[in-house]
Amino acid sequence: MPGSLRHQRVFVAGHKGMVGSAIVGRLKDLGYENILTASRDELDLLDQAGVRAWFAEHKPDQVYIAAAKVGGIHANNTLPAEFIYQNLMIEANLVHAAHQSDVQKLLFLGSSCIYPKFAEQPMREDALLTGTLEPTNEPYALAKIAGIKLCESYNRQYGRDYRSVMPTNLYGPNDNFHPENSHVIPALLRRFHEAVQNDAAEVVIWGSGKPMREFLHVDDMAAASVHVMELDDATYQAHSEPMLSHINVGTGVDCTIRELAETVARVTGYQGKLVFDSSKPDGTPRKLMDVSRLKSLGWEASISLEDGLRDAYQWYLDNHEVARMA
């Protein structure tokens, strides 16, 4: 199956983002010969007619939906309308255009925030829609849940093979390093780097430091995504349940935010004091993925957190002048 897929036309939506660029790199490493991409100037994913016309012209055989409006707690909390509207439109336009163009294979990338705030840990795929979501990112989570259900619905009604992967917290090269709108790892890497440069006596970290999080390097995410897409239908279906099209992607290991901050301090060489601001929101108490389904399908993560952080920090050092800061 993989050999035949690698000759097909593969569209990676969101190829300039952290995940999309890693998927493009993984596809190239595996010998994919015909990778299609489109910048925002070339294709506005919020424009339904434009997306439909692009598909009609370029006729992809496979689609990876890595395009999304993303951000950390602060961005989700202050821009809820943008997060729900843009993510709903992007996924709806792409999934429907793929179907209209007779694309049989599609992979939708979601997020672990789809699960209830107090879901049993580690979170299994069947925890979806069993409880209340974390309020700070509920609009984004609802959009991602809708994306899963879009894929399931087109599979049910039209016999499509549209799969979904739900990654845990991602980080790595091409991340967004804005100090407030980014996710926790790039925000901390930048903050600690600047603290070293300025010889700061202390670094302030949002929240109590007690919440537990799982982190996955984006290169592992890309490898998992292509692995899931390449699985033949019989293998994939043998490890699937009816009406359960999504697969968790993570390491199966978590740490506290305090432990993460201490590791970032070590990686960046910061030796000052760490101060935790408990007046800022913590978000979900714990988010650990049950990745047993993905392991049963033959894949598991290989990049340790400290090694991954060193790679991400080196990328920032090499690219901080052009890194995304918004």
TrEMBL record:
SUPFAM superfamilies: NAD(P)-binding Rossmann-fold domains. Its EC number is 1.1.1.271. It is an enzyme of class 1 (oxidoreductase). Coiled coil: none annotated. Residues 10-235 form the NAD-dependent epimerase/dehydratase domain. Keywords: Isomerase, Multifunctional enzyme, NADP, Oxidoreductase. Substrate binds at residues 191, 206, 213, 282. NADP(+) binds at residues 14-20, 109-112, 144, 167-170, 183. It comes from the Bacteria. It catalyses: GDP-beta-L-fucose + NADP(+) = GDP-4-dehydro-alpha-D-rhamnose + NADPH + H(+). CDD domains: GDP_FS_SDR_e. Pathway: Nucleotide-sugar biosynthesis; GDP-L-fucose biosynthesis via de novo pathway; GDP-L-fucose from GDP-alpha-D-mannose: step 2/2. InterPro entries: Epimerase_deHydtase, GDP_fucose/colitose_synth, NAD(P)-bd_dom_sf. The record marks 111, 113 as: Important for catalytic activity. Belongs to the NAD(P)-dependent epimerase/dehydratase family. Fucose synthase subfamily. Catalyzes the two-step NADP-dependent conversion of GDP-4-dehydro-6-deoxy-D-mannose to GDP-fucose, involving an epimerase and a reductase reaction. This is GDP-L-fucose synthase. It comes from Marinobacter suaedae. The gene is fcl.
